[in-house]
Specification:
The radius of gyration is 16 Å and the shape is globular. About 40% of the residues lie in helices and about 20% in strands. With about 100 residues, the chain is α+β, with helices and mostly antiparallel strands. Strands 1-2-3-4 form a four-stranded antiparallel β-sheet. The chain starts with a helix and ends in a 6-residue tail after the last helix. Strand 1 and strand 2 form a beta hairpin. It has one domain. The longest helix is centred in the last third of the chain and has 15 residues. Bound molecules: zinc ion. Zinc ion binds next to helix 2.
Length: about 100
């Protein structure tokens, strides 16, 4: 583990900031690393799908998917005091 070049690259992308754009919780875009446009990463059930050739042609977990996963992990680690993420806790409290 840790020797996977896609994983390493994905971590690099995630730590670089501004490469990843959150469209919504199930959709992200990651800038192409050769500077031409961006790829869409969409959550399909429990799996991420990416529009890049590496993922669509080789069916591997590409660096963009790694990047989104790393960025999600970073987000969570930066949100202290939010122990409960169940749906109810996100609804506005009703005043009685
Ligand atoms: Zn990709």
């Amino acid at each position: 583990m840790g020797e996977n070049p896609r994983e390493l690259k994905g971590r690099e992308i995630a730590e670089n900031g501004n490469q990843i754009k959150r469209v919504n919780p199930l959709a992200y875009t990651v800038k192409s690393q050769n500077g031409n446009g961006a790829y869409s990463i969409l959550k399909d059930g429990s799996e991420w799908k990416c529009s890049c050739p590496d993922h669509t042609h080789r069916n591997v977990k590409c660096k963009h998917i790694w990047a989104v996963e790393f960025s999600l992990a970073l987000r969570e680690s930066r949100q202290p005091n939010r122990s409960c993420t169940c749906p109810d806790s996100r609804l506005p409290r009703l005043r009685i």
